[in-house]
Amino acid sequence: xxxxxxxxxxxxxxxTAAKAMAETTGADLFALETIKPMPKxxxxxxILGGFGARFKKKPAIKPxxxxxxxxxxxxxxxxxxxxxxxPAVRTALTKFDFTSRSVALFSTFAGxxxxxxxxxxxxxxxxxVIGSTSxxxxxxxxxxxxxxxxxxxxxxx
Length: 157
Ligand SMILES: Cc1cc2nc3c(=O)[nH]c(=O)nc-3n(C[C@H](O)[C@H](O)[C@H](O)COP(=O)(O)O)c2cc1C
What we know:
This protein is of the alpha/beta class. The chain has helices spanning about 15-25, 40-55, 85-95, 115-125, 140-155; strands at about 5-10, 30, 75-80, 85, 100-110, 130-135. Strand 3 (about 75-80) and strand 4 form a beta hairpin. Bound molecules: flavin mononucleotide (FMN). Flavin mononucleotide (FMN) binds near residues 10, 14 and 50.
């Protein structure tokens, strides 16, 4: 079974999880990056990122050699921003064709996962969501990381 992990990460938590999952499962890893970088200052990030997420912005992303049809399972990870999907992931969910693909969703968060997973599910249309999970900042919480690795192993079969 061929698995891909597609993720966006600004401060490393989702990336830590995605990389650990790829190591555990042997999945191919695809990082999403916006063409326009996020500001460096924390306050500016929160305002701009939160606004972008809330207003469902879809920023341009750098090209990646990811083709959903090449994979049996696709794991998609996003940080929770303003209670929902990070904008770069919103772009990816509408840009790539996930029709009839088996996808599994994860989010990382600081306080609460809120509506992140349901918002992703809604955008995926006819894809089959075979699982989902959310974890509190895996870079700082080893238990979260272990749980995500176990979850990914189950998804990847
Ligand atoms: C712009 C922005 C908005 C955020 N909004 C939320 C939120 O609404 N709820 C929450 O629990 N955490 C929120 N966070 C914290 C992140 O979800 C959390 O730190 C996540 O693990 C970051 O993933 P990353 O390190 O891969 O970027 C926010 C962080 C940023 C930068």
